[in-house]
Amino acid sequence: MAQTNFTPIQLYRSTTALAVPLAANLAAGELAINITDGKLYYNDGGTVKLLASNATSAPVLSFQTSLGGLTPSTATAGVVTLAGTLNTSSGGTGLTTFTAGDLPYYATGTALSKLGIGTNGQLLTSSGTAPQWTSGSSVTVGIATNLAGGVAGSVPYQSGASTTTFLGIGTANQVLTSSGTAPQWSSAITVTGLTDSGNLTFTGTGNRITGLMNGTVLDRLAFQTSTTNGSTGFYVLPNGSGTVAEIRVSGASDPTNASTGALSIVSGTDVRVQSFISGTGTYLPLTFYTGGSERYRTDINGLTGFGTASAASMLQTAGSSSVSALKTPNIAEVNTISATAATGTINYDVTTQSVLYYTTNASGNFTVNFRGSSGTTLNTVMQTGESISATFLVTNGATAYYNSAVQVDGSSVTPKWQGGTAPTSGNASSIDSYTYVIIKTGSATFTVLASVTKFA
After folding, report:
1. Contacts of 355 (CB under 8 A, 6+ apart)
2. Model pTM?
3. How would you label 201-235 residue by residue, b for 16+ Cβ within 10 Å and e otherwise?
4. Are 395 and 358 in contact (CB under 8 A)?
5. How far apart are CA 113 and CA 103, in angstroms?
6. Distance between CA atoms of residues 197 and 217, nearest Å
7. Is-contact 56 39, C-beta < 8 A?
8. Which of 55, 123, 293, 405 is most buried, judged by most C-beta within 10 A?
């Protein structure tokens, strides 16, 4: 009760429980009281703050677990908002994030560890210190409880109601079959027919399909269509988007290091018949037989012979006393046409062309040097008893120059000229055609027959 002659001081007030004044209701520094709650507020520069409370304890300023880990995000009263992470020692995980499939486990420290989800089909095992995902093929299954009466290698089977019988281990390489009433070990299995409407799949490595191959022709292993009077054929196919299919044959029962042959289709671009090797095998020539005899052969260096097994060139044919070696309606020869003036020493590479044509007027007398190529001598290219023909077309202007000397592999050779006389001049304003027949008569020994003809 206010005293007589004194005016009581009354604050902005409210009797509504939990009511809190707004900043707009109070001037800076002005007080307000909630009589029902027993709380005194003031305006602190536009923010209403709690100044005092009739609560028996002070506002909550912190929150502590028995072993730490959580604190309030701000000092507060009433509802306590917690932040931080609850450690394992307080019953938490110590973790803040998880990925789908994670398995939490304890290793050490104040937080759990996480094991990410394994791949499809893996099993959860232990490393001895932590859980881990393991492929099924790597899991070793412990020994099962022994059945009474069994011995090493025995196979248990049910021989009657509530009766287990043991079949002793068979001998090496026997297979388990059925007698019709019980399992048995057999030295071999006979299959009179195998019908499969799906794929025949072999697992593991080094599998073989074996069958008789050294008996009579009729008794040998064979593929045959089941269609009456039908044709037989089989495919070797790539898988999925693959483009290579191949049938291989080996010259040894272990193909690791062996001569190997193949018929293949490669990358959808070509079909190949190949002779190659596996490992340290020996390269073999590729041969073609008809009528029981070899008809042509390509050796390991690519030299191919028809009618001969010892070709000395990329293509060599051999006839007989009654059959010509080669018959062709025409042959296209390779010419080299060059805007060059004949003069000095001209290297004529017989492996490059049969005809060399210089279209610019000769500027001097010239020497022709015949060779295989820049890196191979003609002596290497040719065998004794062989000959090569070559033509050199020389353009002359008003001054007639001529071939004054001939060489083979850089060594001088005196040609035998047609008519018996070597030319002493060319033919003006014309094309002189020089033709040479080069005959190898011995090692690095050649006879050259030469002629020149004017074309104008």
Report:
1. 333, 334, 335, 336, 390, 391, 392, 393
2. 0.52
3. eeeeeeeeeeeeeeeeeeeeeeeeeeeeeeeeeee
4. yes
5. 8
6. 29
7. no
8. 405
Look up residue 200 and give its two tokens: 């025949």
What is the tens place of the pLDDT at every residue in 179-225?
Answer: 888 898 887 666 666 676 788 787 888 888 777 777 788 888 888 88
CB burial class (10 A; 0-12, 13-18, 19+) of residue 129? exposed
Phi, psi dihedrals of residue 25, rounded to the nearest 5°: -85, -15
Quick one: tokens of 52? 């005092």
**Separation CA 310–CA 300 (nearest Å):** 12
Residue 124, amino acid: L
Of residues 180, 186, 183, 187, the one with CA closest to residue 155: 183
Q: Which residues lie across from 450 on neighbouring strands?
A: 417, 436
Q: Give the separation between CA 417 and CA 454, rounded to whole angstroms.
A: 15
C-beta of residue 109 within 8 angstroms of C-beta of residue 89: no
DSSP bridge partners of 157 = 165
**pLDDT higher than 60, residue 418:** yes
Residue 420's Cα: distance from chain center in Å? 68
- CA–CA distances in Å: residue 213 to residues 216, 221, 430: 8, 6, 73
Answer yes or no: is pLDDT of 145 > 70. Answer: no
Evaluate whether 173 touches 185 at the Cβ level (below 8 Å): no
Residue 134 is encoded by which pair of tokens?
């393991």
The residue type of 97 is: T
User: Can you tell me which residue has the tokens 């001569």?
Assistant: 259
